[in-house]
Design a protein that fits this description.
By secondary structure, the protein is of the alpha/beta class. The chain is 29% helix and 19% strand. The chain is built from 6 helices and 10 strands; from the N terminus they run βαβββαβαββαβαββα. It binds ligand 9D3.
Length: 230
């Protein structure tokens, strides 16, 4: 898979791919990730990527021309309807549909993702309307730009690529695949500052441990994510 990021802060990403599962996936050539400076697709003397909003209002809006030029050069299309199969152009935006494990798996099946990071007050709407295949938010809270959201999408996608996880874990057996939160985990010591590990986990009775974990996962889900049980 190829992942191209369009951003005014390409340096934001440099260290982010140098650790853990993402670093291993890049080293194993499961994915190639490049962060591109949006300003390199400007043609004016001052490399302007933003302008004032029509209709008035605070802040600046990312101009369409450099973004359309960037996507054309990276994905070979200036319209979403002309995108080749297996390529997706994703705008990270507070107005997008919310990222889910299902959407991450859909992205993980693609040969190329082009991620556009918004900044300032927003992005000219013709980008969302005619250029991108997917407008995606990571949740209902305010970020100062699309860059941290792009990192979240990339992390969620890469760990689903075949071979990205160690053999000990399979992505399909984890939390959110079965609609419940994970059960609580404990390691040594069995007593820490007066807090004890649940006795059943120390017994080696595998059937009882499995039952305790199912019930503890249910309790945790009821408490923290009742919406998952509706
Ligand atoms: C006052 C209206 N705001 C829109 C909700 C303005 C605004 C806030 C934040 C405009 C841009 C941004 C920058 N955020 C993103 O680019 C972003 C984002 C987010 O803020 N939350 C969750 N997911 C995402 S994806 C991109």
């Amino acid at each position: 898979m190829k992942i191209d990021i369009i951003t005014i802060f390409p340096d934001y990403f440099r260290e982010a791919f140098a650790f853990g599962i993402i670093r291993r996936a890049v080293a194993a050539d499961l994915v190639e990730i490049k962060a591109h400076d949006l300003r390199s697709w400007t043609s004016d003397k001052h490399h302007l990527v933003d302008d004032r909003p029509f209709g008035g209002g605070d802040g600046m809006v990312l101009k369409p021309e450099p973004i359309f030029a960037a996507v054309e050069s990276l994905a070979g299309a200036r319209r979403n309807r002309d995108l080749a199969r297996g390529k997706r152009v994703v705008l990270l935006s507070p107005q997008g549909k919310q990222l889910s494990q299902v959407l991450a798996a859909d992205f993980a099946s693609c040969e190329q993702l082009v991620l556009i990071c918004g900044r300032y007050e927003g992005v000219d709407e013709r980008v969302a309307a005619a250029l991108v295949s997917d407008e995606v938010s990571i949740g209902d809270y305010v970020l100062s730009g699309g860059e941290p959201a792009a990192l979240v999408v990339i992390d969620a996608v890469i760990r689903l690529l075949p071979g990205a996880l160690g053999s000990e874990t399979s992505a399909s057996t984890e939390s959110f695949s079965d609609g419940l939160l994970d059960y609580p985990h404990y390691t040594r010591p069995p007593e820490f500052e007066g807090m004890n590990v649940p006795e059943v986990l120390l017994t080696g009775h595998h059937a009882e441990i499995a039952r305790w974990r199912r019930e503890a996962a249910m309790e945790k889900t009821k408490r923290n994510r009742p919406d998952l049980l509706k």
